[in-house]
Description:
The structure holds two protein chains of two kinds.
Chain A: H1 8-13, H2 18-28, H3 34-43, H4 46-49, H5 54-57, E1 67-69, E2 77-82, E3 85-93, H6 95-100, H7 102-118, E4 123-133, H8 141-164, E5 168-175, E6 184-194, E7 209-213, H9 230-236, H10 248-263, E8 267-272, H11 277-289, E9 292-296, H12 309-314, E10 321-325, H13 330-339, E11 344-351, E12 355-360, E13 363-369, H14 370-375, H15 389-395, H16 410-416, H17 424-427, E14 438-440, E15 447-450, E16 462-468, H18 471-476, H19 478-495, E17 499-508, H20 515-535, E18 539-545, E19 549-550, E20 553-554, E21 558-567, E22 584-588, H21 605-611, H22 623-638, E23 644-647, H23 652-662, E24 676-679, H24 681-684, H25 689-694, E25 701-705, H26 710-719, E26 724-730, E27 734-739, E28 742-747, H27 748-763
Parallel strand pairs in A: 4-5, 9-12, 17-18, 24-27
Antiparallel strand pairs in A: 1-2, 2-3, 3-6, 4-6, 7-10, 7-11, 8-10, 9-11, 12-13, 14-15, 15-16, 16-21, 17-21, 19-20, 22-25, 22-26, 23-25, 24-26, 27-28
Chain B: E1 2-7, H1 14-24, E2 28-33, E3 44-47, H2 67-77, E4 81-85, H3 87-94, E5 101-103, E6 111-119, E7 135-142, E8 146-148, H4 151-159, E9 163-168, E10 187-191, E11 197-200, H5 218-233
Parallel strand pairs in B: 1-2, 1-3, 3-4, 4-11
Antiparallel strand pairs in B: 5-8, 6-7, 6-9, 9-10, 10-11
Amino acid sequence: MNDPKITPEIIADHGITPEEFERIKGVLGREPNFTELGIFSVMWSEHCSYKNSKPVLKTFPTKGPQILVGAGEENAGVTDIGDGWAISFKIESHNHPSAVEPFQGAATGVGGILRDIFTMGARPILNMNSLRFGPIDGNDEAARRNKRLFAGVVGGIAYYGNCVGVPTVGGEVYFDESYEGNPLLNAMCLGLLRHEQIARGAAKGTGNPVFYVGPATGRDGLAGAAFASRELTEESQEDRPAVQVGDPFMEKLVLEAVLELLQTDAVVGIQDMGAAGLTCSTCETASRAGTGIEIDLAKVPQREPGMTPYEIMLSESQERMLVIVQKGREAEVQRIFDKWDLPWAEIGFVTDTGLMRVKNHGKVVAEIPAAKLANDAPVYYRESKEPAYFAKTRAWKLSELPPLTDPQKVLPELLASSSIASKNWVYRQYDHMVQTRTVVYPGSDAAVVRLKLAPPPAKDRYLAITTDCNGGYCFLDPYTGGAIAVAEAARNIVCSGGRPIASTDNLNFGNPMKPEIFFQVREAAKGITDGCNTFNTPITGGNVSFYNQSPTGAIDPTPVMGMVGLIDDIAHVTTQWFKERGDVILLAGNAVDTADPYLGLGGSQYAQCLHHIKAGLPPRLDLAVEKKLQDAVLALIRAGQIKSAHDCSEGGLAVALAEGCISKHPGRNTAELIGAKVNLSTFAKGTRLDALLFGEAQSRIVLSVAKENADAVVAQLQSQGVPAAVIGTVGGKTLTIKAGKVAGKWNVADLYDGWWNSIARKMA
Amino acid sequence: MKFGIIQFPGSNCDLDKLWVLQDVLKQEARYVWHKDTAIGDLDCVVVPGGFSYGDYLRTGAIARFSPVMKAVADHAGRGKLVIGICNGFQILCEAGLLPGALLRNRSLQFRCEHVFVRIETSQSPFTCAAQKRDIIRIPVAHGEGCYFADPETIAGLKKNDQILFRYVDSRGRVADTASPNGSVENIAGICNATRNVCGMMPHPERASEEALGSANGRVVFESILKHLRGSQAQ
Lengths: 764, 234
């Protein structure tokens, strides 16, 4: 089979600019052949090279005494958690595949992030995900399509994660028109390891053999690289699926075999074949070690005959790994592969040439300096311009929002709105308990898992994990939205009793070539940087997903933050629901942020769901105030003073209070409901009722405490400079909220029904 | 007591079983690889949850042919204890060690949640530490847990007191909505006619420690221990 001639059209089809082509010629000292062009096109794509986002990513805080392996060094970062233990975690997107084929797109998204983690030598102990879809209300064509995507993505995550035996312990799902046709799937995985178990993706030691392990390479996922090659399709004369197909059972075998393999010291380097498959894994491992690598494609297991070097190098077939083995230890490695019945092949060896040399049946088909291929992609400082839509969204005045007179109908409506409603329809499809670590199940501020570091009765340690981002806030002001994503993540960790230690980010945006989009990227990144610096949560790695555009426009900027916190004692593990009749409810933080011209209603779910307005500015965030609040609440939790803690976010204070009443769910069809009597009258004077009840002012936490501790807790918060007040008591079968002359009274069973069953009803 | 936990390549509750038996209940426990043909001197074989060989065809359909399953059948044939949990239940049914089959959940979706299960008899090695009609709160996590058997088989199970567990609501009533999967007569677990082989869909190992929110499932392991101690004393 002859490779096509390199023409300007072929170059353009590979997404390579004329300037980039010149740069490639500079690296090679000659023109690339077709296979080499393909290799450059994937390695220098945004996905692999971060060429458009690097200048922004460089500004992130990535260092700290707890960071053992930093962002970008390896497949995932590694963070110290003490006593010789560490965690490795990362979040990664699979947005485009999920838009095309939601089930397999999501499934392989989970598979990819799992491999990044166990490649580090860590046993994956939990998965999380952050999802975005268009609205699922009603039954018109758009809603039906959104529901199909939603059901498919959730089904795909369940299919893969459940089989591999890694619990999916939490996440978030939002629905907004901007995600119509452009759903987001960000999957996060976290693994546990000993410091000495950290594995490296480096091809060290000239002469060491290079092993391929996992299923045979097929043509799947070829279009999953950063281009769509019309010529290739015509040449191959066959339709090829654009999305990879996942085999979670194979992943489980590879996972177990790799972890067993890494227990021996026979492995010198290991990397998964994710995006850009064999290409990326060979050139990156050689580049990291400062060595070269030589492989022969004839030795690569192939699913079908007649595959070209181009196809083999660019295939994104799933569940494959590249393993560099200490010479002389091959038999040990082979024994473990065979134990797990895994296909494997010795495909090459490490060299000292600095070259990635690819042969096919002994004939050289590509020869590229590995380090230059891996690291010398161009870096672009994209132009940035304040979006024109700001003029419109910021022209909106709060006075245009009609005053709220009767909150009675509003609260149930908000609780049943898709983004606020319980996500049990989602997480009941995920095995969120396997590995018997999960201490706080999905449905509280953050998931909590135990580490099982030693058998009982030895004391254990715990992690709190969350993912957060409000795209609407980011749309209205990307800087504030980015900072809030971090602040809210940290707040969720703190409310669960954890001390935030590190984070991971997934930047989901539209086309960065558009200056207005790049403005969003840059500003959101600034917000994330300031947030992470405030909470001492360096970024340990992450992912960038651009070009999330449909004909109707770009998605709301969605920089998702995944964050992890440590809990030293199970007694500090705290949940969001009220515990006992007679407990006192407190608000830590200001009821209304009077310094915010929109009083917390800009971008609020109240403004969006009830009035269909996404305008103004997002809630104001003062990071110093937020930090003070979180420190004070965490200290109280650790002192054993707090019975429940729930962060005020979407839907504001009224929704947070209602969730305190209705979110304890001990078993199937069985909720443990409890009422509350709340009086907000002291805050109601001179402010808007809608802002008080449903405004989304930041830096607020609803606490409940034993009656006898209430005064002391208020005094303690105030002494730390945190506004605090008693606002009610727990008990009864209704939630009543009094605010001056107005009062709402709701049967908690009704609130529960609308909140718990809303999504199932929409999906029925 | 000596417990053996079968490890199929796709088992994923094997570690949890070892943890609960060895680290929580302080028993002797070890893994038994699916390629092994002898299982030695075990007192009780545990077939854990997971996806044995991927289960793309039908849960447990391939596992029944694995080398270790012949040894498990021999062990059961000698009257020794076997308990299959979740995927283990599916495999024991496929292997013919238990009657009936597990079909796809009525919802056609995987279901993971805590359910309420009623102990239907204390006359078995797997429930003897419980009282009949006790209600336990315990998780399920499966896509194919809808127990089915023909009416004669069900009648036989009832006649011989072989139904060990039923899904109930929080007040102990056998209601259609209490079942997470649509099982015939809300059946959550059964034993064979000679009462030494048990299969159940709920996961007792996920409800054996207070840290996990429920320790109700421990009664299953405590029953096994009570039974084994009793038979050793004889």
